[in-house]
Amino acid sequence: MSNRLPVDRVVEEDGSTSWRASPGGLVTAVEPIVEQLGCLWVGWAGSADERIEPFEIGAMRLAPVELSSEDVERYYEGFSNGTLWPLYHDVIAQPEYHREWWDRYQQVNRRFAERVAEAAAEDAIVWVHDYQLQLVPAMLRELRPDLTIAFFLHIPFPPSRLFAQLPWRKRIVEGLLGADVVGFQQVTDAVAFRMTVERFTRAPALGNTVVVPSTPDEGSRTVLAQEFPISIDAEAFAEVARRPEVRRRAEEIREELGNPRTLMLGVDRLDYTKGIRHRLKAYKELLEDGEIDPAETVFVQVATPSRERVDAYRQLRDEVEVTVGRINGDHGTIGRAPLVYLHRGYSREEMVALYLAADVLLVTPLRDGMNLVAKEYAACRLDERGVLVLSEFAGAADELRDALLVNPHDIEGLKAAIVRAALMPLEEQRRRMRSLRRAVDDNDVAHWAAGYLGSVLAAAEARRIGPGG
Ligand code: GDG
């Protein structure tokens, strides 16, 4: 289960409806696994006040949970994206704490838990995804003690001193401890969680395991709280990258942009955690300083629309669009813009063509659980060309050591990395890209699933045998 189902409903011109993959990291990573396992996926279908009957796509059965417009406002835009998202991303934006948002978060989490409790077979494994549903594990355990419950957090877990701001911190921790396995992106997230557990509950952590003391209903039990860095289906991306029509499209993109010597690319949901403003500032200064020649360079920024009704996102969009206008106004000529800004979503094939067309990919989040875009770029570059500039604050930086690692707050450092990437000799590109591709191929999503789901199955087995068995 996840807040959103992996698909968006599209209403065609003739009034008929169809489903299209929804953008975002959770879907990219998890869908190939779920498709293979043939699970039931419980989540919101994306439109408020609408009751949609369960349906099937391939081997997946999808069970929509209904949300009212007030639920969307308070549980989703409010508590999930106005409180938890900024708090868990190092308070880059100011989190807001409102009791009515929290009340609704509890109510909606209960609705999700009840839905799954009704649908799950005896002794089933339930896999709960992400920050919108952190209370579900404990609620579900109470309703259905037979289930094995796994939770995965796709975003960072904050340091305990920041998490401490949350008025309902203890309740969230207890919610998560309802799971048998709690998975995180990075070691630092798992460590922060275990320290937080020790600080706000009576449960001690021993290595990766938290021991939850016995209650009147249940003996003591253990929760595995560990890092399982997520990844992509690298071969699926490579397969698209090999297609002749996608390669042709990559060439066509370069032609359409006037065959620049250097094509730089950014691909992000339009989110303030992704460091788009810092990236644009660096690019703007490089043009102003004359270190980048607008006659030879184009920067394409794909900014996929996201959370458009949340204030901080509206404000970000306005700021980004003013900066884009300023850069092109100051440095463009008739027929040539140094910055191409695209505020819309694209097909997987078009994304891969963009990756193939780009000499440099700029991934500069201020904080990011993992960042799959960085991994996708490496998986697609079978030609071993191209340079990845990667923020050290993305989880992916732990694995992609041969990227040009940057601190996006350090604008001078970021500028130097961009220039270095644009001028990097082919031999160095090859050496670095080979290493990045190996890192992604060796740790693809199948590897992640084997590790994570392996631990979940072990937990299920241990529950079956019972303590002392
Ligand atoms: C969260 C965490 C973590 C984007 N626009 C389009 C499109 N995308 C795809 C990308 C990529 C995914 O969406 C974005 O994934 P990221 O990992 O970069 O970022 P989040 O959405 O913030 O994901 C993140 C992730 O969960 C997984 O755990 O890595 O840290 O924040 O796959 O390619 N795909 C298509 N059209 C678009 O316009 N087809």
From TrEMBL:
Citing just one GO molecular function, the answer is: alpha,alpha-trehalose-phosphate synthase (UDP-forming) activity
What is the scientific name of the source organism?
Leucobacter massiliensis
- Whole protein: which stretch is covered? 1 to 469 of 743
Q: What is this protein called?
A: Bifunctional alpha,alpha-trehalose-phosphate synthase (UDP-forming)/trehalose-phosphatase
Which biological process annotations from GO are given for this protein? trehalose biosynthetic process
- Would you identify the family this protein belongs to, as annotated? Belongs to the glycosyltransferase 20 family. In the C-terminal section; belongs to the trehalose phosphatase family.
Chain segments annotated as transmembrane: none
Its organism's taxonomic lineage begins at:
Bacteria, Bacillati, Actinomycetota, Actinomycetes, Micrococcales
